[in-house]
Every structure is written in structure tokens, then in C-alpha cells.
Amino acid sequence: MICLRSACRDYLMGTQTVHALDGVDLDVEAGEYVAITGPSGSGKSTLLHIIGLLDRLSQGSYELDGDDVTHLSDDELALVRCETIGFVFQFFHLVPRLSAAANVELPLILGGIAAGEREERVQAVLQSFGLADRADHRPDQLSGGQRQRVAIARAMVTKPAILLADEPTGNLDRSSGKEVIHILETLNSDGLTLLVVTHDPELSARANRRLHIVDGAITKDERGAG
Amino acid sequence: MRSLDILRYTTSSIVGYRARSLLLLFAMAIGVASVILLTSLGEGARRYVTGEFSALGTHLLIILPGRSETTGGAPPLLGETPRDLNLDDALSLERIRQIRRIAPIAVGSAPVSWQGRERESMVLGTTADFLALRQLRMAQGRFLPAMDPHRSAPICILGSRVRKELFGSQSALGQWLRIGDRRFRVVGTLGSEGRSIGVDLQDVVIVPVASAQALFDTPSLFRILAEARTAADIPTAKAAVARAIRDRHEGEDDVTVITQDAVIATFNRIFRALTLTVAGIAAISLAVAGILIMNVMLVAVSQRTAEIGLLKALGATQHRILLLFLTEAGLLSLAGATIGLGLGSGAAWMVGEFYPALPMTPPSWAVFAALGTALSIGLVFGVLPARRAAALDPVIALAGR
Ligand SMILES: Nc1ncnc2c1ncn2[C@@H]1O[C@H](COP(=O)(O)OP(=O)(O)OP(=O)(O)O)[C@@H](O)[C@H]1O
Ligand SMILES: [Mg+2]
Questions:
Q1: Distance in Å, CA A209 to ligand 1 centroid
Q2: Chain A nearest C-alpha distance from B385 (Å)
Q3: What is the pTM for the complete model shown?
Q4: pLDDT tens, A72-93?
Q5: What would the 3-class secondary structure string for chain A be?
């Protein structure tokens, strides 16, 4: 489903070129659970941004679901993002002035879904993440774990095929982190393709597949229980 | 994204950033209010002045001694004094076909007294036709009778204020009073509506023209009023009047004939220009509001980079982000303009309450112009911040917490 070939992402820092991604070949099948690890600055986030179509390759090619997305326009990329990809971030990125329900509703609003259907889907997804009684709370009235659950709910409300999570537990205490991981794994067992960037070896051990990145290149690609 | 949702979303950010939004609303409201108030004042002044001139009567020609220099001919020779207008000049105009009636006017100031009460008053000498020509209404009694204008008669008509000051609640009709060193009998009093530029008819005493000339010991007239039969007759009448006087003054063009329409048109032009000028000055404050909007929206964009990045990650196109920020700027300026419209109209209304003579309603063109300018300024100055927001790289926007 995800197919990267000789993927490079270069950043120009003054006169110097930084190879954030340096010739990555990667195939991910639908329904896989992939953990991405690596030292800080090794290019994990960059890889996730490329896969999530938030960023473009400098060289190489990227096929998503068999379609070459390397040369799509910004607007076409936005549409694909809207329909097939969900994001979860380390810092939640909830809109502070909006309630939990309104935050979850955002992608549906952007997708032009009618208000009645939006309401139903938001309610359903909040319910399934145990947030029904927090629907009207603003982010600053929620705990970290709850915020991340709202963020996952927001990512999942459009029923994406791929969920990309960049250190989703990086800002949470142990028990909330466990809770969040549990939710993500449940989603994966229902068929969602899940890619998680993490620094936590215990967490990466739970994945079916573990990528290790150093200096923008994949150095390890293990499958099976760790 | 549906338009209702766009509105809801932008409203949430307008409400969410309250201080900023209030600041913008305030700036825009002040700009629009000053445009509305100043144009109301200008329009009010214009309507007031032209109204005053219309109140003089209809199809009016005013003949003044002395030539105005507006025609741009050679300047008069040194020492040349214009010949005065006299009663026969006035009467000669009655023969002009396009002229319905005329009224010679002689004025002066004299003490008017009755039973020990005395006041200085303007005395206006004229003929019977003055009443119809100036469209005046009698409160009591009658006006000057139709008689030979060369004959003086000891009768007078009092303006309403003169009557009140001299007679109070007593009846003035039939009473003899003293004007200067002569005695006159009151035959009528004027209604209280007569007012006009220059002379307030409530403050005058009207006597036969010959009596006024005798009283002030001068054969000359202050001016002659003439009424053309129809509006279409005015130009011909004007030329005929000029010709008639020239014939009587040995070929000298030494009078000025002004037509009422020309005066009104001139005042209209002057006040329009004035109104546009003050509106233009007020519009500067609208431009200032626009720059403020741009500034604050730019700050908003940098405040909200994470939000913009998030919207992009959630699948918002550049076009959509642009639209969101433009809508926000547009909504803010529209709301500000509406508040300003209310404030400006309210202020105009209050001025109108204090000066009832001024018709203080904002002209509709100014209302539309102010609202339109406010909205377009909001949008124009909103474009730069909106484009900056739309062009933000989502990765950097999300990272730059
Ligand atoms: N916008 C950018 N401009 C320049 N260099 C960048 C930019 N974004 C990332 N980089 C560089 O690319 C490299 C990879 O960055 P990336 O964010 O992918 O690392 P990471 O593995 O996610 O690190 P961390 O674990 O700290 O999040 C780093 O060297 C970084 O400095
Ligand atoms: Mg990272």
C-alpha cells in the first residue's frame, strides 16, 4: 500500500545540504503495525511527513495504493490526506478555543460533510474512545491522555486507511501512554495500517514490524514479535 | 467545506481572540462612523442652504445694483460707480412678457416704537406683489394694498417677532406706531414661518416702498425681485431684464441678475464638493483601520501557525486557508462597519436633535460607500496575511510550536 523507492529528502541549510532522508526503500502492506525508532535527528518525523503527504520528496518516488503521488499538486495532496490519512502528534495539536467535539468535527467540516452526519460520526467516535462525557470540554480542561484520545478520535473520524503517529506517547505519563497505545493497537487489529514513531523500546517491541533509522537510512527492518 | 461552516469556524476564531477582534471592530467602527457623521453634516448643510433659497419663492430673479465680475470682461474704469436701481427701473420690468410680477425692495433700519416700547428694526419697503412673490402668509389683517408704488401711505405690516415684542399679547391691528419720525398704522401681521437667508422676515416691518424711500431719504432700491411665469421662461426673462435695465441706464450693464436656480445650483455644487472632501478625509481613518487589520491579521497568522499547519494536515487546501482568513477579515470589517453605521447615524441624529434646522440624515450613497469601502479595505488588507497563512509549510507550521 505504501511504496517508497530511493526516497530522498534534502534540506538546504545555508550552503550545506542535510540529507534528512537518504535513499529509503520501503514497502508497507495494508494492516501492518510498524514501529519506527532511531536517534534524534535521524529522519523519523521526516519519513512520516513524506508518507503522510505533508512533505515532498527531493528525489525518488512514492506510490500510495498503487498511485504515484510524487507529482500531485498541493490541492490533490490535500484531498488524499483528507480521505486516506490520519495524523496523531506528540503535542496533540488540538485547537485550543474549540471543544473536544468541535476539534473532532474539524476534518469532517473540511471534507464538506453535512452537519447531521457529522454530528452522528463525532458522537460515535467520541463514544468509542470513552470521551462521550468530555465532548464539550476545551483542550485545557482535559488531561494529557484525554487530549491525545481526542486527537486520535479526530484522526479516525474520517475513517482513514493509514494512521501516522509521531511519538504519540512522548508527552504522556506511563499509564496514559499505555491507554493510548492500547487504543491504537485495537484500531490496527480492526485493519488500520499503523505507523508509530517512538523512542520507547518497550513500545516498539509490541509492533509486528520494527524499522530502525540512522542518518536518514533504514538500518534495520525486523518482523515478528520482538 | 460549506459556507455556513466557514462562517462558523471564522466566528469561533473571532470570538476566541476577543481583544484582537474588539480592537479591529473599534477601529473600523470609528472610521465608518466618522464618514457617516461628516457626510451627514455636509449633506445637512447643503440641504439647509438650498432649502433656504428655495423658500425665497419660485422662478425667482434677483436684480442687484452693480455688475458682478463673474463674466470676466474688462475691469470697470477707475472711479466708475454703478448706478443705483430706482422705482421706475423696477416698474419697467412689469412690461416684460415672461415676468409674472415684480417687487421692488428698499430696506433700512429704524427705531420702531409703540407706547414707550421701542426696538430697532429692519424696515422693508415694497409693493403688494411681495406677498405672493415670497409666498408669505398673513397671520392677521391684510398685506399692502395694490396702489400706485410712487405714493406713500402710513400703513405697515409687522413681522411676527416685532409684533410680539412691541405688543405682547395685545392686538396690534389698527394701532398707530412710530417708525423713525413718522407714524404708521398696523394693517396686518405676518405668519411666523417667513425666514430666509439674510433677512429674517419675523424681524421686519413692511411699509409701502415710497414710504420707505421717504423714511430713509433715498430714491434707490436695495434690489428688485421678479418672478418668471414658468421655469422655462427664466433664461429669456433674465436676458430681457438685463436689456430693459441697460436701455434705461444709457447702455451700461450695471446690474447683476441672479436666478434662484443658479444660486441653488452653485450652493449644491459647493456643498457637494465640501461633503466629498470631508468624506475623503474621514476615509483616511478607514484606511488606517485597514492597515490595522492587516497588522493584527499578520500577528494572528503567526499566532496560529500550528492551527494552520493542523488544518493542512487534516486536508485543507491552500485555497481553503486563504478563504478562511479572508472571511475572517471580511467579517470583522463588516461587523465593524455595521457598528460604525449605527454610531455615526446615532451621532448624526443627536446633532439633529440639537440643531433641528439641519436635516441630518446620512446620504444613502455615503452609507453604501462607507460600508463598501470598509469591506473592501478589510478584504484588500486581509489578502496579504491570508496568503501568508495559505503558503505556510505544514511541517514547519506543526513543528514551530
Ligand atoms: N525544516 C527543516 N529545515 C532544515 N532541516 C530540517 C528541517 N526539518 C528537519 N530537518 C533536519 O532533518 C533531519 C531529520 O529531522 P527529523 O525531524 O526527521 O528527525 P527525527 O528523527 O524526527 O528527530 P526527533 O527524534 O528529535 O524528533 C534533522 O537533521 C533535522 O535537523
Ligand atoms: Mg521527530
A1: 23
A2: 20
A3: 0.71
A4: 998 999 999 989 999 999 899 9
A5: CEEEEEEEEEEEECCEEEEEEEEEEEEECCCCEEEEECCCCCCHHHHHHHHCCCCCCCEEEEEECCEECCCCCHHHHHHHHHHHEEEECCCCCCCCCCCHHHHHHHHHHHCCCCHHHHHHHHHHHHHHCCCHHHCCCCHHHCCHHHHHHHHHHHHHCCCCCEEEEECCCCCCCHHHHHHHHHHHHHHHHCCCEEEEECCCHHHHHCCCEEEEEECCEEEEEEECCC
Query: How do B182-190 and B155-158 pair as beta strands?
Result: parallel
pLDDT band, very low/low/confident/very high, at B196 (cuts 50, 70, 90): low
Model pLDDT, residue A98: 93
Instruction: Identify which of A9, A13, A18 to mutate to test ligand 1's pocket (most ligand atoms within 8 A of the CB).
Output: A18
Q: How far is CA B29 from CA B282, B284, B345, B373, in A?
A: 12, 13, 12, 12
- For residue range B142-185, list pLDDT tens digits in order: 999 999 999 999 999 999 889 999 998 889 899 999 999 899 99
User: Ligand 2 centroid to A43 CA: how many Å?
Assistant: 7
Residue B320 touches partner A, C-beta closer than 8 Å: yes
pLDDT (tens digit per residue) in B16-58: 888 888 988 988 898 889 888 888 888 888 888 887 777 777 7
Residue A18 is predicted with a pLDDT of 92
Give the residue whose CA is nearest to atom 7 of ligand 1.
Answer: A11
**Quick one: pLDDT at residue B400?**
59
Nearest-Cα residue of chain A relative to residue B324: A110
Burial-class residue B248 by CB neighbours within 10 Å (0-12, 13-18, 19+): middle
Contact list in B for residue A112 (CB cut-off 8 A) is: 1-2
Residues, chain B, total?
Answer: 401
Determine whether A15 is exposed, middle or buried from the number of CB atoms within 10 Å of its CB (0-12, 13-18, 19+).
Answer: exposed
What is the model's pLDDT at position B251?
Answer: 80
Neighbours of A133 (CB within 10 A): 9
Least confident of A207-216, B210-219, B300-309: B300-309
Indicate yes or no: CB of A79 within 8 angstroms of CB of B315: yes
Grid cell of B67 as nine digits = 455688475
User: Across all residues in chain A, what is the average pLDDT?
Assistant: 93
Three-state DSSP state, B116: coil
Q: Which ligand lies nearest to the CA atom of residue A216 in the structure?
A: 1
Sign, CA dihedral B118-B123-B126-B129, equals: negative
Contact (CB<8Å) B317/A83:
no
Q: Whose CA is closest to A193, among A64, A29, A78? A: A29
How far apart are the C-alpha atoms of B295 and B381, rounded to whole Å? 9
Cβ distance of A107 and B312 shorter than 8 Å: no
Q: Which residues 103-162 on chain A approach chain B with CB closer than 8 angstroms?
A: 106-107, 109-112, 114-115, 154, 158
pLDDT in tens, B3-18: 888 888 899 888 888 8
Q: Which one, of A114, A103, A197, lies nearest residue A156 by Cα?
A: A103
Neighbours of ion ligand 2 (CB under 5 A): A 45
What ipTM was reported for this prediction? 0.90
Q: How far is the CA of A166 from the centre of ligand 2 (A)?
A: 7
Distances (CA, A) of A48 to A165, A219, B81: 8, 17, 99
